[in-house]
Design goal:
Number of helices: 9
Number of domains: 1
Number of strands: 0
Structural class: mainly alpha
Order of helices and strands: HHHHHHHHH
Oligomer: single chain
C-alpha cells in the first residue's frame, strides 16, 4: 500500500491568500500612519492610529472566524499594553517595540509548534481554506496519512519561526538608532521583505509538493496499491 503524495491534499487552496494577508497586516497600518502624518498629526498620534488599525484588524479576524484563540487574545493584549505604555511615557517608540515583541513571540510560537510537531503553518493553511470545508478536511487527512506532508509543514514552521525572530531583532535595532519617521518606514520595509521571502519559499515548496502529487506513479508502485 503506497502513501498518498503530500501535495495531493488541499490542492484547491489559493496561495495568493498569503499575499493578501501581508497587505492587510503590514500595509494597512503603514498607510494609516502616513495618512495621519500628512494630515498634520504628530508622530505619536499617527503611530497610535496605525496601532488602532492593526488592533481592529485582529478583532475583525477573530469575529470573522467566530473564534478567539490564545494567540489572538495575546496580540490584543499587547496592542492595548503598548498603547497604555505609550500614553504614560509619551514615547511613541513603545508602539513600534510592541510590534517587534509580537513578531518575536509569534516566531517563537512557530518554532515551538514545530518542536511539538503541531506546526502553526497547518493552522494558517486551514485559515486560507476557511471557505472550503473540503480543503480543510483534506489538510486534516494529509496530516493523518502522509509523513511527507507532516514533515513539509514542520519545515515551513521552522522557516517562519526563525524568519520572524530575525526580522524582529533587525527592526528593534533600527527603532532605537534612527529617527521615528524613518524607523516606521524602514521597519515596514524589513517586515515586507522578510514576509515576501518567506511567502515565496512557502509557495515554492507547496508547488513542488503539488507537482509531485500530479506526477504519475511508477507501474510497479501502482501494482502495490
Amino acid at each position: 500500500m503506497t502513501e498518498t503524495p503530500a501535495g495531493a491534499y488541499g490542492q484547491r487552496i489559493k496561495l495568493s491568500g498569503l499575499v493578501a494577508m501581508l497587505a492587510w497586516d503590514v500595509g494597512l497600518p503603514l498607510v494609516a500612519y502616513y495618512v495621519a502624518r500628512a494630515a498634520g498629526q504628530s508622530a505619536f498620534w499617527s503611530l497610535m492610529a496605525a496601532t488602532i488599525i492593526a488592533g481592529l484588524r485582529v478583532v475583525w479576524g477573530a469575529w470573522r472566524h467566530k473564534h478567539v484563540d490564545a494567540f489572538s487574545a495575546f496580540m490584543m493584549t499587547l496592542f492595548a499594553l503598548g498603547m497604555v505604555l505609550s500614553a504614560i511615557t509619551g514615547d511613541p517608540r513603545w508602539l513600534l517595540v510592541k510590534g517587534c515583541v509580537v513578531t518575536a513571540i509569534a516566531g517563537l510560537i512557530f518554532l515551538g509548534s514545530a518542536a511539538l510537531k503541531r506546526p502553526l503553518t497547518l493552522t494558517v493553511g486551514k485559515r486560507l481554506a476557511a471557505k472550503d470545508p473540503g480543503s480543510r478536511a483534506e489538510l486534516d487527512q494529509g496530516w493523518r496519512e502522509s509523513a511527507d506532508f507532516r514533515a513539509g509543514f514542520i519545515r515551513l514552521a521552522l522557516l517562519w519561526g526563525f524568519g520572524l525572530v530575525l526580522e524582529s531583532v533587525l527592526r528593534l535595532g533600527i527603532i532605537y538608532t534612527t529617527s521615528l519617521d524613518f524607523s516606521v518606514a524602514a521597519s515596514a520595509v524589513i517586515q515586507i521583505l522578510a514576509y515576501a521571502v518567506m511567502i515565496a519559499i512557502t509557495i515554492r515548496n507547496v508547488k513542488a509538493m503539488r507537482a509531485l502529487a500530479d506526477r504519475p506513479a511508477p507501474l510497479e508502485m501502482r501494482g502495490e496499491s
